[in-house]
Structures are given as structure tokens and as C-alpha cells.
């Protein structure tokens, strides 16, 4: 049976697997999708998650719930050898292992860009993942709580 490996479970990887499930006949190919996260994030909803108007669980699509015929592996692809058609997978816990493929689809995505401004990379929170959006929301909530307990400001005229 033909082995198809999809690297990345974001929008491109998820919908590639979804379309393959729809168009391949049973037993025609074994589809495996590898991503470090067990879900796809709808990134356009991240500002709403940060603002608190959408719950984080409503901005993600669990891979295993929606890909019934795709083998979903929660790991990182740390090496690809096109000559031998193998890929090394590294799980969050445990030792790496190698799998074989006939066809590979690379949809690994991108990372947040940081600007060369001192302190930004250390202090700022990106807006690329659901965890970052929830962290922004939590930080804003903490700051509103802190602000609500501050004494009233004095005006410049002393009133």
C-alpha cells in the first residue's frame, strides 16, 4: 500500500489529509499526518480569543476527531532523508523513530517574526498560537484587576 506522509497539521496539512480521505478509496494509501500539536488553529479567530469574545476551544479543530482515516502522530519531524524516503519523528516524550514514505507533503508552516527592537523578543507575546492568544487575554485581565485597585490619580492642578 502506498504511504503518504504529511508534515504539519495546520491549515494546509489538515485540509490535505481531509481531501485525501475524501478522494482515496479504502486500502489505496496509508495517510500519516505528523504535527507537534493535536489540533489545527483557526488563526483568524486569535484576536477574538485574545479579546475574550471567543473561547480558545472554539478556535481549534482536533485532528483525531475530524480525520477518521488518517493516522495522526503528535511529534516533530526532525529529519527527512529523500534518498531513502524516510523521516525521523521525535515525540514530546520518548525516543525518536523513523518511518518510511512514498510521497511526502511538506506543510510545516511558519513561526512568529520578531522585530530587532531591544526587549521585544523577551517581553512581547506573539499571536500565532491559541496558547499565545489565551496568554494575552490573561495578561490583559490581570492588568485590569491591578488597575481597578489603584488609588485615583491626582490632577495636575492638585484637585
TrEMBL record:
Name listed for the protein in its UniProt record: FAD/NAD(P)-binding domain-containing protein
Matches recorded under SUPFAM superfamilies: FAD/NAD(P)-binding domain (SSF51905)
Homology family: Belongs to the NADH dehydrogenase family.
Domain (FAD/NAD(P)-binding) ranges: 3-142
Upper lineage: Bacteria, Bacillati, Actinomycetota, Actinomycetes, Micrococcales
TM annotation in the entry: none
Keyword list, A-Z: FAD, Flavoprotein, NAD, Oxidoreductase
Superkingdom of source: Bacteria
Pfam entry (one): Pyr_redox_2
Species annotation: Homoserinibacter gongjuensis
Amino acid at each position: 500500500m502506498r504511504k503518504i506522509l504529511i508534515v504539519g497539521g495546520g491549515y494546509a496539512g489538515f485540509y490535505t489529509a481531509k481531501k485525501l480521505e475524501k478522494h482515496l478509496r479504502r486500502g489505496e494509501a496509508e495517510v500519516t499526518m505528523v504535527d507537534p500539536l493535536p489540533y489545527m488553529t483557526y488563526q483568524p479567530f486569535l484576536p477574538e480569543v485574545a479579546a475574550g469574545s471567543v473561547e480558545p476551544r472554539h478556535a481549534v479543530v482536533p485532528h483525531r476527531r475530524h480525520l477518521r482515516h488518517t493516522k495522526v502522530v503528535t511529534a516533530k519531524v526532525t529529519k527527512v532523508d529523500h534518498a531513502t524516503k524516510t523521516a525521523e519523528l521525535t515525540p514530546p516524550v520518548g525516543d525518536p523513530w523513523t518511518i518510511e514514505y512514498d510521497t511526502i507533503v511538506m506543510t510545516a508552516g511558519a513561526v512568529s517574526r520578531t522585530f530587532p527592537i531591544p526587549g521585544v523578543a523577551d517581553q512581547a507575546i506573539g499571536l500565532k498560537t491559541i496558547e499565545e492568544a489565551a496568554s494575552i487575554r490573561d495578561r490583559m485581565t490581570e492588568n485590569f484587576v491591578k488597575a481597578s485597585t489603584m488609588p485615583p490619580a491626582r490632577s495636575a492642578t492638585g484637585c
